[in-house]
Fold this sequence. Notes:
single chain; 449 residues; alpha/beta; TIM Barrel; three-stranded mixed beta sheet; 41% helix; globular; binds 5-hydroxymethyl-3,4-dihydroxypiperidine
Amino acid sequence: MLQFPDSFRWGAATASYQIEGAVHEDGRGESIWDRFCSTPGKIFNNENGAIACDHYHRYQEDIQLMGELGLQAYRFSVAWPRILPTGRGRVNPAGLDFYERLVDALLTANIEPFVTLFHWDLPQALQDDFGGWTSRDTAKAFVDYANIVSERLGDRVKNWITLNEPFVVAKVGYEYGVHAPGLHDPRLAWQVSHHLLLAHGMAVPVIRANSSNAQVGITLNLSSVHSATDSERDHYVAHLEDGVSNRWYIDPLFRGTYPSDIMDYLEQHNLTPQMVNGDAAIIAVPMDFLGVNNYSRTVVRQKAGAANGVAEQVRISGAEHTDMDWEVYPEGLREVLVRLHQEYHVPRLYVTENGAAFPDTVSANSRVHDARRENYYREYLTQAHAALSEGAPLAGYFAWSLMDNFEWSEGYSKRFGITYVDYATQRRIIKDSGYWYRNTIRAHGIREG
Length: 449
Ligand code: IFM
């Protein structure tokens, strides 16, 4: 048995737009994801989060489900447009009331809430008025929003996560155009990354002021980057890729400065974001923990025929891949956690997301036998345990996800849940992986063999 420390927290995670639905109810404003989904061709099957898992109406049933799974903690996000329908200014009391009911019901069920303030559903008005995160004004609006939510919930919520995956918001939304707002401009993407980090840094003291025992952190998507070969060229590309996707975020948060090799690269390519004196100190505000989302690793090599330093992703044939075509690479989780401990001396770590999409089927007796997902969890948690043994201050783990949900541009085609959702009836069915997780939580460890 691989035993975890007594204080280790076991949870599951979701995000507002992916599960709530009820997008037109109780005064919620439009988000960039509502708008993006309404553009034909952007989302698989032109699906959207208008109903999703109908969690807005079913949160009590979903908390019961969490109880059946034995969860000790639940990570969810607040939809900014429910609180401030136009992003700033007028507050919508019904939005705050919903999250208050949710938090109270969680506490009654003895489940600790971990609140993410921004998990991608930016109010559309801020996109229209300011160009979204390309503007410093959106960072300022975020601080006001964080103030409103933490003022209302700060007496009951202890654990706060400012932002989810700034890398994905910036790159996938503003450069690759695959996520809302669907732009294709690398210069904007770099600017966005800076404003997101700034928004985080400015919000931390505000949350602390409203929530006396607050534990505040940010969630980054971090994957170890490996070179496809032993060649110097490929190692160089891998180091750059690590700089762009990992160090660009970890360094300013924990070392107070952006990595110099990436700053040089940006200058050479005329991509350097505008910054103001003092920003670095704001971003480096001390945090209580770092949230890590980890699913896979990245393997790269120099792209043939391209300029030096241009990476090309390599798919490892023969390795197991999930339905997202992400390589199953459990060791990568240990690598990331140990690195954060050894190189960055991060005070506390949570795995705020880890999990796998696989196609599921419901058997005749209403069971979901998802052995591959169960294996995935066993192997990744084994590596999380190894990281703990190497001294990484890992305090908890959140499975992604509590239930199948709206997987952004993939619509409902990818199922990440430890609970199956039948979208036609909204019936929830705990999958075998969910029962395995429940037993792991009960035993506070992983049974070997
Ligand atoms: O569903 C997403 C989540 O919203 C952010 N992290 C990755 C998950 C799987 O793609």
